[in-house]
Design brief:
Helix content is about 20%, strand content about 25%. The chain has one domain. The protein is globular, with a radius of gyration of 13 Å. A three-stranded antiparallel beta sheet has the order 2-1-3, with helices on one face. It contains one helix and three strands.
């Protein structure tokens, strides 16, 4: 599945800390589920996780919901 450049750019980041209960590590990866459709595939942000928990979450979501899982590096917010 080809995703246009900048397609994920408009999505709001969920959090700065891994959403896995009790983890507490910085969230470095956003997990996004893309469900094919017409005319535009639906994209749903699952959450922000550390790398290990992002992979586990992505596998679970793909098994449960189908579609394509994308892992997008979280950008660190600019400091004022």
């Amino acid at each position: 599945m080809r995703i246009p450049a900048g397609w994920f750019a408009g999505m709001q980041r969920v959090g700065a800390e891994c959403l896995w209960r009790g983890c507490g590590q910085p969230a470095g990866v956003d997990v996004i589920l893309v469900v094919p459709g017409e005319p535009v595939p639906a994209r749903v942000r699952i959450g922000s996780y550390c790398l290990g928990h992002a992979v586990i979450t992505g596998i679970e979501m793909q098994a449960r919901e189908g579609g394509h899982v994308w892992y997008v590096a979280c950008s660190v917010g600019s400091r004022s």
